[in-house]
Every structure is written in structure tokens, then in C-alpha cells.
Amino acid sequence: MPTKADSQDIPKFDYQEVLRDVARSMVRLKRPERLLKLITRFIDRQFGLTHTSLLVLDPKKGRYVFVNSKGAKRLPVGLVKFDIDHPLMQWFSGSKKKLPVQKDFLFLSDVKKMLSRAEFRMAANSRGDLLAGIQKTMQNLNIELLVPGYFKDTLVGLLMLGRRVNGRSFTTQEVTFFQTLAHDCSMAVKTTEYNQNLIEQNQELANRLEEIERMRAKEQRTYYEIMRSLAEEVHAKEPYIFSHVSEVERLGIMTAREMGIGLSGKTKDLLSAALVLHDVGKIGIPDSILCKPGQLTPEEWQIMKTHVEKGARILEPLTDFKKVREIIMAHHERFDGNGYPRGLKGDEILIEARIICVVDSFHAIVSSRCYREGHSIDYAIHEIQKCAGAQFDPVVVDAFLRALKIELQKKGEVPSSLAEYISK
Known about the structure:
The protein is of the alpha+beta class. The chain has 2 domains: 7-200, Beta-Lactamase (2-Layer Sandwich); 238-423, Hypothetical protein af1432 (Orthogonal Bundle), CATH 1.10.3210. It is 56% helix and 8% strand. The chain has helices at 15-28, 32-47, 87-93, 108-116, 118-121, 127-140, 172-237, 245-258, 266-277, 287-290, 298-305, 307-314, 322-330, 351-366, 377-386, 394-411, 416-423, and strands spanning 52-58, 63-70, 81-83, 106-107, 145-151, 154-161. Mean pLDDT is 80; it is low at 4-11 and 96-100.
């Protein structure tokens, strides 16, 4: 039991200041092992014990392990471990109501006194056996005082203190000080454990979200490739002079670049997808209308115009392509407001849609259809120029024709009308 002592027996330091330092260290040190080692080192130096040791619960292994030990008779840290059913753990983890003494600390002398009582000597396989196991452990490990540290109802660890080298007993003030340290250590350990668990859970969640995102991106990419194949099928039914979809895409990109539109990263991806997929909705138009060798009737024309909405609906599963759907919805709008399906005009129409409108119309003019032969590039250029400001954005027309000249120069085929237009 703790005893009163003369002032000369009490270590000359400020208990409260030490506890404040420990509290500050709890905030500063991210690894509780350092704090625990600082505490054991301080007790060893300040109190002159045969040893000072700290036993802490390892929740992953379900056992208590020594994290540090100091003193002449220090314990072999890492070699001694206690399972949760060890007598020491049972004593401090059991119900207080069933114990004849408090659970806040335990002296070896108290254990011996309890075992000397007849009620414990005669008890079989109960508290007598438990106390006998505790006495044996404390004597083997040269433990004079045990101070538990709790977090809520969980025994987090034990502060194990050897005898004073000078033979003096612990004072009540000292035991109270040890109890506060044990409590602070438990808080530090559990707080770190909680934070670590939170970090691990967040990392696991991040990994799962990343995996889900990879799977989603893969599914979206697969769906996009399917849509691209459908677009190829549509163009196969309506072959253009620049027949392949990638050629249409390239000319549209060149036009955007001529306009000074930044084409890095997602901006280019969205424009490319819109150029490739702008007519994908035609896959839902009957071949009898799509490939009719003659002019469409008003009723058939109404059905043909639905390819815009059909294309937008087809692309709904591509959640990253929301803007692509908006572009496709607007690529048959006219600059003067007389287009479809919403009658947008001027800057109300997305610039990408205005680019597609020009490129798409150019290809429609030079294409050979089932009901007519394709027109010459000169004729197509004349029609595009004539409709600038009405069907087409004039700025887009200028950029398109400059881009077209670059394209044709590579083939050595620049019509005089285009050369004259560009030189103006």
C-alpha cells in the first residue's frame, strides 16, 4: 500500500508540469511508441526503481506485449507476452464488484495479504488461483506495483514498476501520478490506433473506389468502342469521299485548332468523340429511309431528324460524355436559328456543334449518295461560303477552309477557288 513520506523522500519535480509535458507530447508525437519510451525513461531516472516496464495491448494479435523496459532488472522486451486470459489481464479486466480491492492499482504486498486470508486459501479454481497466478508473475518479473491504463472499458496496458532501490515505499501522490500517466498513455495508444484504423479504412476505401473507377472506365471505353463501330456502320451505308470516320474526326480537329481552341486532354477527347459519334443515332433509322434512292417525304424527313435525339439517348450510359451528348443534340442547329431540334442560334449553339455542322455538311455535299453523285470540292466550297452567316458560323467557315487547304496541300490538290478564297 502507498505510504506517506517525508518531503525528502518525494522526488523534487512538479507533477503537474510533467503531466502537461506528457499531454503536449501526445499531440506532437504521431507514434505512441516514442511517448511510451519517454515515460518509462523518465520514471526510471526520477524514481530510482529496479525496473520500469510498459505492457500494451496489440489488438491485431489479441495479446499484450512489452513496448519498453528500463532499469537494472529490466524485462526482455519482445520475449515476454501475455494472452488476454493471463491472470494479470483477468484481474484488471474483470468486474470491480467481485474484487475485494480496487482495480486502479495493485501492490505485490496486497496480493500477499489477500492470499493469507482463509477465504482465498480455501477457494478452489476461483479468485485464489487467480491471485496465486498474479503473485507468481509479479515475483518472477520483480514487480512491486501494477498500474492499469484503460480506454473506456478496455484494458489498454499495464505500467509495471519494480521496487525502489533505496527501499522506500511509494507515496499516495506518486501512485496517483502513475495512474494519470497510465491513463494518458492509454489515450495516446487508442487515439493513434483509431487514427491508424481510419487511415487504413480510408486507404481501403480509396483502393476500392479506384478499382471501381477502373472498371467503370473500362466499361465506358468498351461502350465507346461499340458506339464507334456503330458510327462506322452508319458511314458504311453512306460512304463519303473522305469515307473513314477518322478522316472526319481529323478535319474537325484541324478546324478547331485553326480557331485557337485549346485541344489538350479532355477537351480534345470530347471533341473527337462528338466528331466520331455525331450521327450514331442514324443506326436507329430504318434503312428504307436512310438509304432511300430519292428525296424523302415530309413524314420520312421527320423520322430522319430523330437521329439527333436517338444518338443522345444511345450515349447516356457514357457518364463522362455528358457534353458529347449536348454537342450531338446541337449539331443540326443553324447559326440563324432555323435548325433543329431546339431552334438555337448564334452563340447559343456549342462551338463544337458549330464545327461539326460545317464539317458534316461539307462531307454531305461531296459524298456520293444512293440518289446522286457527290459534288466537286469547288462546288462544296462555294456552298459552304454561301451559307456562312445563315446555316454556318462564319468564323468556323473561315477556319474550316483554312484547315481544308492544309489537308489538300498534303495531297497536292488545292482548287483555285479555295486558294483564291484563302488569299483574300
